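Researcher: Structure prediction, please.
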Amino acid sequence: MDNLQMIFQLKKMWDTFTNNHPMFPKFLKAVNKRGIQEGTVIEIIVTDPDGTPLSTNLKVTATDIELFNALKDLKSGN
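Model: Predicted structure follows.
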């Protein structure tokens, strides 16, 4: 599969995901609008169907911000 084909497949998958979970992209946009700064805490909780939660968190560092910015640049084609 070439890169262009992979991009179209990922786009289709993302569209399905956002149709299934319309609030998640809105959440990501709200987070992006406020900005993630050094010292921000990101927490993730995953709950299995049986109700067992798994959670973790991280405090954002300067190098994390560098990674986020590099990913933004990659997305925008810079």
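Model: Residues 1-35 form one domain.
Researcher: Thanks, that helps.
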